[in-house]
Amino acid sequence: MDIADIPAAVAALIEEDEARSVDLALFASGLGDIRAATDKVEDPGLVARLSVINFAAPAAMAAAMAARMVDRKSGRIVLIGSAAAFHALPFAAAYSGSKAGLTRFSEALRLGVREHGVGVTLVSPGFIDTAAGRQVPGPKPLMLQPEEVAARIAQAVERGKAHAVMPWPFAVLRLFDRLLPRPMRDRLLLSLAPPG
């Protein structure tokens, strides 16, 4: 189903949970795209679509699942974000912005439901060697294999981690981004734009 139809997606999820209680729900929806080389600003339609698929739909579905898990006083939710959420990527504003929204939502949801026996884990991966990942232009440092990412997600959930950033150098980059003065950070981010 197309999760852009959020009411239908939430209804299908609730129907599934009513048929058989879900103990662990993993929301891994995402579209990645960058601004076209000929555009100075991302297309408004692209911004809207990425906002729905990368943030609004998984957040709404996670909220619906969390409400049911809170009633049962148990369960675990995993939201797949992105390391791009930590950086203001001028050539991928919709992608980095939508994943940043999911990051903040995940943190808030985790705090809101933890006293009710429900855990929330946010996963922020870097580049993953998938068909979609290989289509992203430019360098892809520290690319991970899907099997490795799946194993790390399973470990994070088993340990009850609130946030798993992978691979670990991306966690260091996140801190580095926060410590840089804004003018230096802006120059660095602008230099990352793929050639066009």
Q: In percent, how helical is the residue content?
A: 40-55%
pLDDT below 50 for ≥5 consecutive residues: which ranges? Answer: none
Strand segment tally: 4
Number of domains: 1
Arithmetic mean of pLDDT: 87
Write down the Rg.
17 Å
What are its keywords?
single chain; 196 residues; alpha/beta; Rossmann fold; 4-stranded parallel beta sheet; globular
Description of the molecule:
By secondary structure, the protein is an alpha/beta fold. The protein has one domain: 3-Layer(aba) Sandwich (Rossmann fold). It has seven helices and four strands. The chain has helices spanning 6-19, 44-72, 93-113, 131-135, 146-158, 169-179, 182-191; strands at 24-27, 75-80, 118-125, 163-166. A four-stranded parallel sheet has the order 1-2-3-4. Strand 1 (24-27), helix 2 (44-72) and strand 2 (75-80) form a beta-alpha-beta unit. Helix 1 packs parallel to helix 2 (44-72) and helix 2 packs parallel to helix 3 (93-113). The longest helix is centred in the N-terminal third of the chain and has 29 residues, at 44-72. The radius of gyration is 17 Å and the shape is globular. The model has no long low-confidence stretch (mean pLDDT 87). One of its GO terms (molecular function) is oxidoreductase activity. It holds the Pfam family adh_short. Keywords: Membrane, Oxidoreductase, Transmembrane, Transmembrane helix. The chain crosses the membrane at residues 46-65, 77-95. Belongs to the short-chain dehydrogenases/reductases (SDR) family.
